[in-house]
Amino acid sequence: MEGLLLTQSSTPIIGQIAWLLGHLMNGIFSVLSNVFHIENIGLCIIIFTIIIYTLLLPLTFKQQKASKLTAVMSPELRRIQNKYKNKKDQASMLKMQEETKMVYEKYGTSMMGGCSQLLIQLPIIYGLFYVIRNIPAYVDGIKAVYMPLVDKILASNGGQAAMEALGKSKEIMMDPSRFDFSKENIIIDALYKFQDTTWNALADKLPNLEHLIRSTQENLTHLNAFLGINIAETPATLFFDAIKTGAIVTIILALSIPVLSGLTQYLNMKLMPTAAEQMEENKDNPMMSSMTTMTKIMPLFSVIFCFTMPAGIGLYWIASAVVRTVQQVLINKHLAKISIEEMIEKNQKKAAKKREKHGTNAQKLSEMAQINARKFEEPKKKPVSEAEKEEMLKKAEAKNKNAKQGSLASKANLVRQFNENNHKDDEKK
Fold this sequence. Notes:
3 domains, mainly alpha, 77% helix, elongated, 2 strands, 1% strand, two-stranded antiparallel sheet
């Protein structure tokens, strides 16, 4: 369980990506701190988010192009699906695959055209989220703020027991049966989730360390201060504490993070024209109906999550949505200048080059698919040799010779004999 927190991510692929992104975040903090003398986690999150999504822009653009092309292709693909809607036999399924493949080849793309970019982006975005959620694990300058207090807690009598007791609280939710509080990384993980109430509780449990606890809390408050709020606190905590004290400004700021997160997410989704076009065109399609519902629900979920998670996470979501929105506007303008015909022509040229490189294999696969389809269409017939044919004829003749008088077989024999006699007479003449 340690790998879930500071305790850098150990998830395959995502863990490695988070490690690389962590070095970037560490570099941003170091430059801001050493060059500009600015130590602020909120500003680091914003710069970090802008850099990552800027680097992802080429992939985003390719994905948007593929989506636009899919919107054009969808009527043809839908006709094929409707054609084989109620046909579940293997021959029909093969035919549908072949026809679908031909449509994609016609437009110079593939079934994975828009998915590959998303598949590349997803682990990067997950890794980015891990870094934002566990900044002390990746930023040396922030981890260093915790270390003097952590060393004293581990060295003091009752320090570990105090951390284990606080770990069970609803703010931390780190059960000692699952987390080893004798390790400094686990203690930092817990301290990173501390809010004002838990800092006060720690000072009460360890009065001999109160001065160090307060100075560490002040340093972290300075690092986490952004536009008048502590981004280590949850908007829910800030909101309810502000209600008790009547701090109107804090109430507004606490609500602004989840509300802005939801609004920016919604705006970003609405600015995706290709998705909107498909939804309008296929409004009766259950899948498209589900996508429309998700477009409305996801921003609402964003509001709920941001209200209950540290404000730093909400700040990241807002920053990422704003960056994606700006990118989407630019992409939409560029795509509006590109005609579908031009896009298809370019795609076909690229596909042709690929086929030239792997032409033989591609041709063989196509031929095999067509042969397989024909095999299922035509009934299987066992080839008959000449010897077998002769044997079958002899049996038939023997059967006909022994036919009962008056039967169809006997009548057929009379007709056959009559024809044979006539044929012999003609030959004599």
